[in-house]
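Dear support,

Our group has been running a series of protein-ligand predictions, and this particular one with zinc ion is the one our PI (initials K.S.) wants archived with full inputs and outputs. We had some confusion internally about which version of the output was final, so please treat the block below as the authoritative record. The input we submitted was:
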Amino acid sequence: MTSKESELINIDRSVTCKVKMGSRDLVQATGKGTLVVETQHGKRYIKEVLLVPRLDENLLSVGQMMEHGYYILFGGNKAVIFDDESLNNVIAIVTMEGNRCFPLSLESITPAARKASVTEDSWMWHKRLGHLNFASMTKMQQKELVCGLPILTEVEDVCAGCASSKHHREKFDKEQAWRVSYPLELIHTNLCGPMQNESVGGNRYFITFIDDYSRMCWVYFLRNKSGALNVFKKFKAFVELQSGYKLKKLRSDRGGEYTSSEFEEFCALQGMKRQLTVAYSLQQNGVAERRNRTICEMARSMLLEKGMPITFWAEAVNTAVYIQNRCYTTSIIEKTPFEAFTGRKPGVKHLKVFGCLCYTHIPSSLRQKWDSKTGKGVFVGYGSCEKGYRVYDLKTEKIVLSRSVIFSEDRAWNWERNVMNQNHLSLNIEGGEVEGGNSVENLVAAHPDNIEHCHQNSTAGELAENIDNDNSQQSSPSSTPVKLKTLQDIYARCHMCIIEPENYQEAFGDKAWQEAMKEELEVIEKNNTWELVERPIDKPVIGVKWVYKTKFHLDGTVQKHKARLVAKGYAQKSGIDYNKTFAPVARLDTIRTLIALAAQKGWKLFQLDVKSAFLNGVLKEEVYVE
Ligand SMILES: [Zn+2]
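Confirmed final output from the archive:
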């Protein structure tokens, strides 16, 4: 408790109670507010601090601090207050005085500065929560629908991200008076697409499933409509197992993906009721269609905010669903969808601004001596567990899942320099609800100071094949959607920096290659492959060429340098110099037969490699080389 009103923000005047002091006096409290503490890691809030004007000293209750999740360590005449159980972030160190009290002096922050920082925080949270409107944010904070959301204020400025994407608040569903009474009793579903641009995982559609009871939403990504039944089966198996409830009814429009005979048969076999609505009718399939629209709007705002290429639409949609499951909705009372479905209050402390620059820690085992300990990336969403982040690695152009990430939330990557032709925004919803067409180009420079310029020549187009992360992966809170980079993968990239010589001149300078060439010449001599003759006048003569190749062990270390002297066979002409070409290969059937025979007879098998085997072949034709 404190006597200084100026120390507190968000004072609730309705709280008036009497406080019994150590001297057994009763003093009047005139309100309750929140104390802001500046720490090295940003602002921390101590909630429910009583305002007691008659108090001589500010008193901080140890018990109350603990109730709010702080950790306090006493010892050696000192008390240290930590932010959380990791004991990493020290909020204050207090030395005990002669009277056995611990006077805590907080840096005095002027109210104006405090207000400014709250405003700044509000903006940051607005962006972290996918440009959620301030009214919903305030509700979430006041009703404590989530854990970890600080006190925020409504900001009157216009946000570039939302203004350009026509963000609006979710309207209350008036038409649906009747509601189900338990989870999975009714699932709404809708397919959205095709998108004009394929996602990085090569998908063009997304399909959502919304639980009517909790309004929890799950999203899957598809290459084409025909995959709908397959993901529905996956979704059904997943939610039923996780919740313990059975899916009873499915409401969808009459889109072909839902009315195929396979789909109907599956539902009939499972004993599910179908509710088919008129296609594109907002009134009948309202829940799913409206949700798809809010998802698209949120995704678009997030992409616009950081000037991200549209090919990241699937990551943005996935993140929007993740956020919306953890946000206030008018459709259910006093709970987030996440809590209504799982029974647990969601945390939001881990939320970060989509598309911001970030740095992932590279483990020492994957790092060369002088390599940086961090890799630069762009934050593109959340992993299945609340502590994992999906990061698009700018160097490898792959999405990785990482737990130790440092975020630079107000910065963005300048994608324009990489991606020139893929910047037309068009998150079109089936039914034409949302129109696109805004070019990212116009909006990318919203914060020119914060944009990091890109000096790489890489093209984003090349990565589609490798990033398969969102390909019909279930991507709500329960999945593991990321393809992790394997060690081999990383080494395979490292190999690129070992340059093999192009020609004899280059190789001659290196002792290892000299050795390799010497070895090759020795086997050629040994096998009597050639004899020296006069140059024929009437026969074609082909040249020879050195080919160099570095061979690696599985772990990426160099196994050997291999040099081959080859004839320029491509200079020969079919029908003149040769008739048939073929490459002898071992027939696997033969090898299997041999192994089977050896097993039956109890023989021992040996394996050997014939070096330069091809030099043992006998040529019928005369070939002249120089
Ligand atoms: Zn916004």
